[in-house]
Amino acid sequence: MEVVVIASASFFAALLTFFSGFGLGTLLMPVVALFFPPAIAIAITAVVHFANNILKFFLVAKNADKKVLLYFGVPAVVFAFFGAYLLGILSGIETLYEYNLFGKSFFITPIKLTIGLLILFFILLELLPYFSKIALNKKWLPLGGVLSGFFGGLSGNQGAFRSMFLLKTGLGKEQFVATGIVLAVMVDSARMVLYKQSFLHDANIEWEMVFIATISAFLGTFIGNKLLKKVSIEFIRMIVTVLLVVIALGLISGLL
What we know:
Elements: H1 2-16, H2 24-32, H3 38-60, H4 66-91, E1 97-101, E2 104-108, H5 110-127, H6 129-132, H7 141-155, H8 159-166, H9 173-198, H10 207-228, H11 234-253
Antiparallel strand pairs: 1-2
Helix pairs in contact: 1-2, 1-10, 2-3, 2-11, 3-9, 3-10, 4-7, 4-9, 5-11, 7-8, 7-9
């Protein structure tokens, strides 16, 4: 059952990225977290996210701006290791608080609390007009790489900071898209190395399910690109936002 749910979530998450305003990782990770511990859910999502960007990488990488890759990408890769390392530490810390509700015990853990709060934080970054209009000077590119890489390694959320810092670089449309994709692949590569070393080696992951989810994301990306590109459906955006908030609150409270 979980294979069907996660594969469907991968398909619709990839499709919805074209008009919901959220990235694949932001939409997919909370659904995977319903079936796996948060750290494992982030790692599984990273694999799907990485594979989904690989095809784009080979198609557009030649248009990426090498200077931005150096000043933004190198700090991003370095701090992706720090974010992934912190995720490994948090995943190993025991329960912060336990409570009973309707005869059942629920546990608030550091990893669920952190990821839930980060989901809420990045929802605000994606939705508030103030943040979407922020474009920082290119001299701040290394700082952008630090923030994007760290949060990419910790939770998989890196797109909001990346866009915020790249908007003022003077890149053309093709360069902007290509550079963003290459940076995402760089960060994903770095964090998955540390995920494997810190907590994935003991995890019982059904890689067949991950493969199916990846193919589903490919299909969702293809259909989304063909049918829904440049479409903005506010009702769908609102539904997606509400669901993400519900899942985030569920993680924070220990109900999920």
